[in-house]
Each structure stands twice: as C-alpha cells, then as structure tokens.
Request: fold
Amino acid sequence: MLSRVTIAVDAMSGDVGPAACVPGALAVLDAEPGVELLLVGQPELIETELAGLGAAQRARVRIVAASQVVGMDERPRDVIRRKKDSSLRRALDLVANGDAGACVSSGNTGALMATAHFVLGMVEGIERPAIVAEIPADGGQTFMLDVGANPSATPDQLFQFAVMGAVVATDTGGRPRPRVGLLNVGAEDIKGHELVRAAHARLRASRLEYVGYVEGNDTFTGAVDVVVTDGFTGNVALKTMEGLARMIGGAVRSEFTATPWRKLGAMAASPALAALRQRLDPRRHNGASMVGLAGVVIKSHGSADATAFGHAVRLAVVEARNDMPAQISAELRAQAG
Reply:
C-alpha cells in the first residue's frame, strides 16, 4: 500500500465548481498527511479558494491550468473531440501520465466515463466499466453496481461487475470475504429473465461468496455486501432510494414541527435525531467508483458541497493507495485459475 499519493481534482466541474471542490479537497489534507493535490482548472478562480491556506498545506497543493470546462449537458463524443484542454480531461491525463494516482470529478457522468475510457483504457479482462454506489445499510453499507454506465449487460459482464464489486467491498468497505447477490424480482431459481438466469449460473460456478438472487429490500438489511445488476435497473433503484430518503426527511421535519407539543418532543429527541441524520447523511456516502478502468476515477455528485466532495476525495485516496485496478486484475486471474 502506498503511503504517499497524489490526487488530481477536477476543480471546475459540477454545479458549484471551485467553491465546493477546492475546500472539500483541502479538508482531506488535515486527516491525510501523505496526500498531495493537483487542482485542475482556471488558476485565478482556484487561487481565490486557496486564500488563507497555511504554508505547510500550500506546499502540498499545485494548480494545473486548464482553459475549458465541460458542461453538464454536453455530449460525451463532443467532449472527447473538442474539450482536450478541459479540467476534466487534464485531470484524467495526469492519471494516465502517472503524475496522479486518482482523479475526482463532479462533472458530467457520461463525459467523464467516456473520456476516462478513452484516456485510461480498461483493465485486461474487463469488457465495460461500471459505476459503484455506496448505500447505507444495517451494520454498514452495501455496494451496488452498475448504477448507470451500462443500460444492459451480458451474463459475463454481470460476472465481471461482481468481481469488481467484491474488490471494492474488500478494499473500501473492509469486507475480507464479501457476500455477492444478483438483483432479481424474486429469490427463487425460476425467477428472472434469461440473461439474469445465465448470470446466476455463471456466478454460482465462480469462487466468489455468491449468495444467489436478492431483491431490492435486501440492499438495506445487511444480508449482502455487493448487489449486482445492469446500469438501467441500478440507476432506477438508486434514484428511487434518493427520492425516498428526501421524502422521509421532509416528512419527519414536517411532523416534528406541526404543533408546539411536537416541537417540544423534537427537542427531547434531538440527540437521537442528530445521530440518525449523521448516519443517513448522503454527503457521507458521496463518491462513486468508476471501476474497470486502468486507473482510479471517482465521480462526485454534481451538486456536492464541500463536505460531500471531501468524502469523494477520501475514497480516491483509499483506492489509489490500494491500487484498485491492480486488485481487480489480480482477482480476475484468481477467478480464472
């Protein structure tokens, strides 16, 4: 494991840009003395966010100029062809050239994935990259993939997703023998369409800790560490979870403030409510790994604030230190042996 690591930060992308990306990345320096940052973007805007930074920390930060910014609505093909000096592209170039161990960006997901694929290439044996989401669950978290990179997937690709998810669960979730489940409409062997049943057979024959089919509710119970599905289903599931979480949060606030007596109840319950808010805070789960690429790339939510972006950078540090692509390659070889 590497003790020192450099993280390339796309400081311009996302809904907030440098105002969130730079402070979020800088916060990681306090907790990670072996980390250095390459802040990529328009120097004058980045320098504004560095005002007041101590000399010791400033020595661990370097600005890399980039004249262009990728918009959230730009087409991936156009970004690859016309935005070669964008902060997104330059951050990925730093990883490809070995100047950084990971890239973190809040930018356009499709553009980031396509450009990363073009610049970094793939781990040998992996056909398509996948996006991994960390979802809070009983006893910790569940890792779900794919959540948006591949609308459809073959049985072999679902197997590859399972291998990559198991590596993520081990390296970032601390699970030495992660339990893998395949998302389906039921737990019985006869359930699901032909592709899912073929993937089920492929996974049962593997050396993974495969527990079989799981349903959507199993994502939260702690019964499984990795949930595997195609990107269409995974993205719908993830967006549904996010919407439900916002609805529940709003309902709790509304009910606790409906009457003076309930407000008093809220005051009495404030320690428990604060702990629950901390446990379910989506900012603590920000940062999605783009696995399968021959380099570490972390996608932060486009609207992430500094706290959320800092979590994505911390995830990048862990994956860079563990050399996630090499871990995936080694696990694939172990499965083939």
Notes: The chain has two domains: 1-122+292-323, 127-286. The mean pLDDT is 88. The domain at 1-122+292-323 is CATH 3.40.718.10 (Isopropylmalate Dehydrogenase). The longest strand covers residues 130-137.
